[in-house]
Amino acid sequence: MVSIKDVAKKANVSISSVSNALNGRANVSEETRKRIVEIAKEMNYYPNTMARNLKVKRTKTVALCFSEFDRNFYFQIIKGINDCVVHNGYDLIICAHHSIEKFLRNGFIDGAMVLDKNVSDELILSAVSDELPIVVLDRELEGKNIYSVVVDNYRAMRDLVNELIVKGYTRFSYVSGVEHTQDNIERYEGMKDTLNEKGIEFISKNYYHGDFTEKSGYQSAKLMIISKNIPEVVICANDNMAIGVIKAFKESDIRIPEDVSVIGFDDIELANYLEPHLTTISTPKYEWGMYAATILFRILVEHEESIIPNKIQANIRWRQTSR
Amino acid sequence: MVSIKDVAKKANVSISSVSNALNGRANVSEETRKRIVEIAKEMNYYPNTMARNLKVKRTKTVALCFSEFDRNFYFQIIKGINDCVVHNGYDLIICAHHSIEKFLRNGFIDGAMVLDKNVSDELILSAVSDELPIVVLDRELEGKNIYSVVVDNYRAMRDLVNELIVKGYTRFSYVSGVEHTQDNIERYEGMKDTLNEKGIEFISKNYYHGDFTEKSGYQSAKLMIISKNIPEVVICANDNMAIGVIKAFKESDIRIPEDVSVIGFDDIELANYLEPHLTTISTPKYEWGMYAATILFRILVEHEESIIPNKIQANIRWRQTSR
DNA sequence: TTGTAAGCGTTATCAT
DNA sequence: ATGATAACGCTTACAA
Asked: Which domain of life is it from (chains A, B) (predicted)?
């Protein structure tokens, strides 16, 4: 690996002149600057980032902690993040939760985003600092230099249920995601509260325990069928479970939406390709990522303080699985 | 940021003792070792990776260059890569083509993988070295310390066409991907050569110019319909175009597979959810990534030389869009 | 305009 | 067993 020393030797100047020349500083004659640049290029010299970062404190790199490569739901979020990062002239590295400590602790990054449930709150709270603001997308977390950018599940669900009631639906079932997750709780509460307000009681036998997987949706619907407890509409805590629900109903020749409506949450790519197309709540993934990164840069480059991020608003996509 | 110096001061020892203690070296008494470890923990000390890497040459980090966050086809590949990297005790960073130079040039990584057409061959060839082996997944590239792990498109297509001929198909159409891409060329050649061998001439009016997008598949099928040139089977250079083709046929009430069969390539997630389920060629994505990373580690940790990677074999998934 | 030298946070060599 | 000290490759005051 060719170092600044090698370039200096070949150019017959001191290393500081090389540094100055290459960093476009004024204190070097145009003539030598040219020569140095040329020699550097011809020697294929690139400054060692680590050595540089050891000196200057800014690295112009931010990290995204992410490891759920199974769920392609996330990739539009990442795209949004990436576009914003590039636009700000920074570099993005994505690393899995296994590696995040390595990057969080050591001044290699100027800021971070977290989209990985495997990372504990404690880790985040212990890593965050004035020199390392963190934006989290997968939880709500309070603290100095920490910013949460999450979807407003509760409100989206309220909007949905209100509209369903207007359409005349009264008998609801709910297929839950993993019980203790914030997403699931907010989505469920949104539904329940709205029903209650409208004088519709939600009884617990219409609550089915899922875990966000297609399979758990399938099994929940099977249960409805066996127990002859088919509602007018089944609201699923996410699309994957809705897909499972639909599959089970289809197998029993229960028509959608004539016999029962099915509604998901997330608006994954599949939702619009299924037969029938899935009515769901669309979280604007690209904008979500973009906004999260924007928040980070408002701190990083604008040095804004006391930002309170807005929640991301999700919207209903009426399609064919509902009337 | 607390440094080794701070720990040394607080523990009343020299920095070398701290370093030795924390790195589990023998030349430090058990007693002081314990004290130092304790103090380090209580001070929340983590060694600065960059400073360390400046000294020792191994970073135990590899990079994946990737930026097509639009095509979720890729994510299982990344998962395979990530699992292998973690299994070897390394860290993975994923960075987009914009940033790759920064990491390729500066000794921050021990090795790299490339899955990004935006990276030029020249860049790869100029960055590769004994200290930085590179595995490419998206092209075939020759050179010292460069290894290509690609899918055997040609063979898969030969297998497919041979079986189709056995099934009695004789009238083929082909919807191409972006013309000059290796994937497209190999897939097309595989089809054409096999047909020729079996005495079936492939005429150019049955070749439709697509670009791997659903839309281009849709338009190609529209063209077939308008020109009343519907074959027995249309082979698409990827699944997305097959989806477009199917959509167009459906709109014209052309039945699949009764009137025409449609076959894709890739086996994206959608393929198995479409109605009818798409017959396609499945590239084992997880294994592909896993294998590519494995090659890298055979060089990195086993110091193997002169490895000639096998091509990844793809397999036909007979489903409902073909007879 | 140019060069010298200190320092960033480590590890490693060599005295002690 | 412990501690100075050089070195990694760079930036940056400061001196020349």
From this structure: Bacteria
Residues with Cβ within 8 Å of B106's Cβ and at least 6 positions away in sequence, in order, are A46, A47, A48, A49, A50
- Check pLDDT > 90 for residue B73: no
A231-250 core/surface letters (b: 16 or more CB in 10 A; e: else): bbbbbbbbbbbbbbbbbbbe
Q: Which nucleotide's C1' is closest to A23 (Cα)?
A: D11
CB atoms A82 and B92 under 8 Å: no
Contacts of B161-166 with C-beta under 8 Å, sequence gap 24+, read B161/B190, B161/B191, B161/B194, B161/B195, B161/B235, B162/B194, B162/B198, B163/B316, B164/B233, B164/B263, B164/B322, B165/B194, B165/B195, B165/B198, B165/B200
pLDDT digits (tens, 9 = 90+) for B246-305: 999 999 999 999 999 999 999 999 999 999 999 999 999 999 999 999 999 999 988 898
**Cα A65 to Cα A17, A151, B207, distances in angstroms:** 39, 18, 45
Distances in whole angstroms, Cα of residue B225 to Cα of each of A219, B230, B250: 42, 6, 11
Bridge-based pairing of strands A111-114 and B61-65 is: unpaired
Tokens 């902690």 correspond to A65
A50 touches strand C (CB under 7 A): no
